[in-house]
């Protein structure tokens, strides 16, 4: 998959996620939608699957430092995991000074990744 196709798929997945989440508790979910959009905008290139792992930018780190992790993790779907490398998500959080606690459930596999990274 080319970078352009991956970016298009990433944008589509986050758009669908935003629509699905807008039907839930609007106040709590609004912040989560903003977090997910900020992840897409500032961290997407660092989290993509099939791309070399690189250190996140300062702008990406600022997103991680203000991220509502439980809300974000609750809304990581199988479709999102097809585009985002959850290992890179864990790495970026740790690199940015916000290591995720062992046992946190984020997507389908994050709790396993935290134990092995």
UniProtKB/TrEMBL annotation:
Keywords: Signal. Residues 1-22 form the signal peptide. The lineage of its organism: Eukaryota, Viridiplantae, Streptophyta, Embryophyta, Tracheophyta. It holds the Pfam family LTP_2. Residues 14-106 form the Bifunctional inhibitor/plant lipid transfer protein/seed storage helical domain. This is Bifunctional inhibitor/plant lipid transfer protein/seed storage helical domain-containing protein.
């Amino acid at each position: 998959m080319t970078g352009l196709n991956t970016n298009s798929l990433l944008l589509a997945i986050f758009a669908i996620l935003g629509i699905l989440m807008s039907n839930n508790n609007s106040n709590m979910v609004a912040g989560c939608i903003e977090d997910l959009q900020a992840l897409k905008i500032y961290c997407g290139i660092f989290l993509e699957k099939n791309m070399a792992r690189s250190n996140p930018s300062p702008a990406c780190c600022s997103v991680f430092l203000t991220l509502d992790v439980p809300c974000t993790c609750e809304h990581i779907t199988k479709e999102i995991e097809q585009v985002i490398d959850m290992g890179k998500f864990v790495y970026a959080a740790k690199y940015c000074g916000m290591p995720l606690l062992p046992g946190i459930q984020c997507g389908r596999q994050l709790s396993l990744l935290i134990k092995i990274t």
